[in-house]
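User: I'm preparing a small set of examples for a lab meeting where we compare how different chains pack in three dimensions. I only have the primary sequence for this one, and I'd like the structure in token form so I can line it up with the others. Please keep the answer compact; I'll paste it straight into my notes.
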Amino acid sequence: MKKILLRFLSLIVTLLLAALWIILNPHPAFAQVNTINYSNMSLENRDFSNLDLTGVTFVAAEMRGANFQGSNLTNAILTKGVLLRANLEGANLSDALVDRVTMDGANLKNAIFTQATLTSSRFYDADITGADFTDALIDRYQVSLLCDRASGVNPVTGVSTRESLGCR
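Assistant: Understood. Below is the structure token output for the 168-residue chain.
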């Protein structure tokens, strides 16, 4: 009986300590510190070139003609964004959430989309020369359209666009 009571008390103490640690921890586990939120903003023709935009949020932002050339958009969120004729040449969008984004006519030369989520996104007339889509999640139909014009090798990752899309 003593053993059971002692185990029960140690379990209660452990749970109380864990709860106190969670309550008193000054940094929430899932919050991003110092993030910028451009959600629902009109950012047409804005210049974001060569900036560190890691983890920045662009949900439903209007970014027609915006310049992201050479920018770091790792872990950025661009859900429902409009990037018509935008310049993302050499941009790093690794692990970015780029779902339901319109990138028609965009310059995606040498862009890096490794492990990005690109579901329900459109790339009509986008220049994807040298873009790296390794392990990106893309709709099968869009992959077939991208494979029709895939060419080049990404200068940073050394991976060919065709190989990264799994083109045959």
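A couple of notes for your slides: The longest helix spans residues 2-24. The CA atoms of residues 38 and 141 lie 30 Å apart.

User: Perfect, thanks.
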